[in-house]
Design brief:
Structural class: alpha+beta
Strand content: 25-35%
């Protein structure tokens, strides 16, 4: 029991260290969208191609190019956005034709490389048989095989260590199996070190798009090794393998313990600082090198001198090897999908690897020990070892079940993703072999074990058990092959096809013009603007017409930006990063024609998350505005509401407290409401009467929108008529709608109100406050 308690303490300590070092983000850099979109057909060439990924990418090691039909590169510089998730590719003048965008990026979160391509056309549609959407390029077979070998070697190495620590060490007397298990440890550690070198070089070649021989000349090996999660994983696994390669002699035990302590301290320090590259660049590097040098010298001297001192007993340090094996498994987690899902997911992924090493990794040492002992003693040794391993394997299967279900929920996300994504299908194959392995393990537990534990087991029972144990080990190797493929396959949760998001189409009236403004993708960053301007059903002629967009950030004092849209086949278009900052925006569309006054229409737009914080001054201004509005007896409003899908309603209202409303819509509807009575007509037709469920109650201009306001914050300053005014933003406590308003700082009058809600974008203005107004039944 003492050994089990030591193992549990070590596991909890390792889990705590892993949770501290691991951060939170998404998993795998997958292309989420692009501008222009995949398979788009553009009438005018773009100035930039923007690729937006699911998580940040490493700037210096992520590339993208645009090539024409002849594979000639037409792109120029590639820049990574501030949040690291977007690549902006500058392109020169593009002729008519089809272009291919190729990208290869390195995730800053889990260190995985992903690559793919997409097509778009300029002046023509894509040819038949072209790629449908974006193509994600899968990993080469060589990478899968190398990773499989490394997984198998790591599981065998860790499994042998845990088998010796948990199964053999407590036995008294202990079977003489040190030679065969030491051979398994040395072989698996050596294979792992060679395999790690091959895996790292191969992944570097894939990332740099160069032959393996060109990796050494690239000059980026240290950057890859010390500055990426893949490199950190390689270093951690190699350190664990080297520690376990040290022989368990008296000198070796001292070196093992000293090296483990040094690796843990340096590894945790590097992880907290951001990696080995950050550690090397630290101002404390000189002190760290000095301390490490002295520590290493003292450790070597102790390993040489202490064993030679008469009667000096060197402790066995039995816990060192299991901790080194657990740290080596943590090195695998460092570059896993789970590392992007937070500390809890990372710790559970490490526990999943621990359970795999206890069960699958322990099969080979159990087989080797039983195969190594003399045939005459095999049955008696099996009666001792098999029950102990059976209990350990049952515990490991329980760990795998819990952690596996959690991993599936995180990385698969939905049931359809199991069958329509490569990750989901590979996971199904893995589960099939896991079920077979569990069934074979149950056969060992409930059939073979009673035969071995019998008072006089049959002579063939140990031999039969060895054969079936070998079959279970083969199944374990197949499972590890599926695991190797899963680790370099993007999770289903981020590759699951999603319904295409419809572009935002804001519709409004500008004097005699109908304006439909399409903003795509209507997210902070690079956007494309398309305006359709019509008089009646006819589009305005491009000759003599200019369409301008004036973009004003409402919740920040940023300079307004004017964008000139260019004629484009009946529409007016432009694209750019003017809406690069999330928050509230006012979008003013200006229709300018020779010899006439400008016609304008306003839209409100809320992009991304608003960064404003609750502000006491903003609350005071809003409450004073509410009080001022509640004193207004009569007023008029002009309200424009668009649903984001080209639908629009423009209404002129007259309002008189406490319960009288007269309104007309641009579509010809008219109504008079007095209390619960409504009289209405359409297009000047006869009046009709109906009764409302309850009487309307007018509180004042916009008072109902000011009740239950939360998250009230201040925005930009400006002028409204003759007074200074300021933007105040807020949301309703229900969370269904957000508002922004220009409020005078002298009169506390609300000059203009904006609302953003699902399928609801409103701009409204109140005027003629307390003017003489009469509303009577027609």
């Amino acid at each position: 029991m003492r050994i089990w308690r030591e193992g549990v303490r070590a596991a909890l300590g390792a889990a705590l260290v892993l949770a501290v070092v691991v951060g939170t983000a998404s998993a795998h850099s997958i292309l989420q969208r692009s501008i222009p979109s995949a398979n788009a057909s553009l009438s005018t060439p773009p100035r930039q191609v923007v690729l937006v990924f699911s998580e940040p990418v490493v700037a210096g090691l992520s590339t993208a190019t645009v090539v024409d039909r002849q594979s000639a590169v037409v792109s120029q510089a590639v820049a990574v956005a501030g949040d690291g998730r977007a690549l902006a590719i500058s392109v020169g003048p593009l002729a008519t034709g089809v272009y291919t965008v190729r990208w290869r990026v390195l995730s800053a979160t889990d260190g995985h490389t992903t690559s793919g391509f997409l097509l778009f056309g300029v002046g023509e549609r894509l040819p038949a048989g072209g790629a449908a959407g974006t193509g994600l390029i899968g990993p080469p077979v060589s990478q899968v095989l190398v990773r499989w070998v490394n997984f198998a070697a790591a599981m065998l190495l860790a499994g042998t260590v845990f088998f010796e620590f948990l199964i053999l060490r407590p036995l008294r007397p202990r079977p003489d199996t040190s030679g065969v298990l030491r051979a398994a440890t040395v072989t698996s550690a050596a294979v792992l070190l060679v395999g790690l070198t091959g895996e790292f070089v191969l992944e570097a070649a894939i990332l740099l798009d160069t032959p393996v021989t060109g990796v050494w000349r690239s000059g980026t090996l240290w950057t890859l090794l010390g500055g990426t999660k893949t490199g950190w994983s390689t270093l951690a696994r190699a350190a664990g393998a080297i520690i376990l390669l040290i022989p368990p002699s008296s000198s070796g035990r001292i070196l093992r313990a000293a090296m483990l302590i040094w690796c843990v301290i340096v590894g945790v320090t590097a992880g907290l600082l951001g990696g080995p590259v950050a550690l090397v660049g630290s101002v404390h590097l000189a002190a760290l090198v000095l301390v490490a040098s002295v520590y290493g010298l003292v450790s070597v001297m102790a390993a040489v001198i202490v064993p030679k001192i008469p009667d000096a007993a060197v402790p066995e340090f039995p816990i060192v090897a299991p901790i080194a094996a657990a740290a080596m498994l943590a090195g695998i987690t460092v570059s896993s999908h789970a590392v992007g899902s937070g500390p809890a997911a990372a710790v559970l992924d490490w526990l999943h690897l621990l359970g795999t090493s206890l069960w699958v990794g322990g099969l080979a040492p159990l087989w080797l020990v039983l195969r190594h002992v003399p045939a005459a003693d095999r049955a008696s040794v099996a009666r001792i070892l098999v029950p102990r391993f059976s209990r350990l394997a049952a515990m490991a299967v329980g760990i795998l079940l819990v952690t596996g279900v959690y991993s599936a929920l995180v990385h698969v996300g939905s049931l359809p993703a199991v069958t329509v994504t490569p990750y989901g299908r590979t996971l199904l194959v893995k589960l099939l072999f896991v079920i077979l392995a569990v069934a074979l393990g149950a056969y060992h537990r409930f059939v073979m074990r009673p035969r071995l534990e019998g008072p006089q087991p049959a002579d063939h029972a140990p031999r039969a058990f060895l054969r079936s144990l070998a079959a279970e080990a083969v199944l374990g190797a197949v499972i590890l092959l599926a695991v190797a493929l899963l680790t370099i396959t993007p999770p289903a949760a981020v590759t699951m096809p999603v319904a295409a998001r419809a572009p935002l189409v804001l519709a409004g009236l500008a004097s005699a013009f109908r304006v439909d403004l399409t903003i795509s993708p209507a997210e902070p960053g690079w956007n494309r603007f398309e305006a359709m301007v019509r008089t009646g059903e006819e589009p305005v002629p491009p000759e003599g017409t200019r369409i301008l967009l004036r973009l004003t950030k409402l919740d920040e004092d940023l300079d307004p930006v004017t964008v000139t849209l260019q004629p484009d086949g009946g529409r007016f278009t432009a694209e750019g990063g003017e809406l690069g900052v999330p928050g509230w925006w006012e979008v003013q569309v200006i229709v300018r024609q020779r010899g006439t006054r400008d016609a304008t229409t306003l839209f409100s737009l809320k992009l991304g998350s608003v960064s404003g914080r609750p502000d006491a001054q903003a609350r005071r201004i809003l409450m004073q505005a509410r009080e001022t509005a509640s004193r207004v007896r009569t007023w008029r409003e002009r309200e424009q509401i668009t649903d984001g899908s080209a639908g629009v309603t423009v209404t002129d209202l007259e309002m008189m407290k406490p319960d009288r409303v007269h309104y007309r819509t641009a579509g010809g509807a008219e109504a008079v409401i007095i209390g619960v009575t409504r009289l209405y007509r359409q297009g000047g037709g006869p009046w009709e009467r109906d009764m409302l469920p309850s009487a309307i109650v007018l509180l004042g201009p916009y008072v109902s929108y000011l009740n239950n306001a939360t998250a009230i914050s201040l925005g930009r300053m400006g002028r409204c008529d003759e007074e200074r005014c300021r933007i105040v933003t807020w949301t309703l406590s229900s969370g269904n709608a957000s508002f922004a308003a220009w409020i005078g700082l002298d009169t506390f009058r609300i000059y203009r109100l904006y609302m953003a809600a699902p399928f609801h974008y409103m701009t409204t203005q109140a005027f003629d406050l307390n003017a003489p107004l009469r509303i009577n039944p027609p």
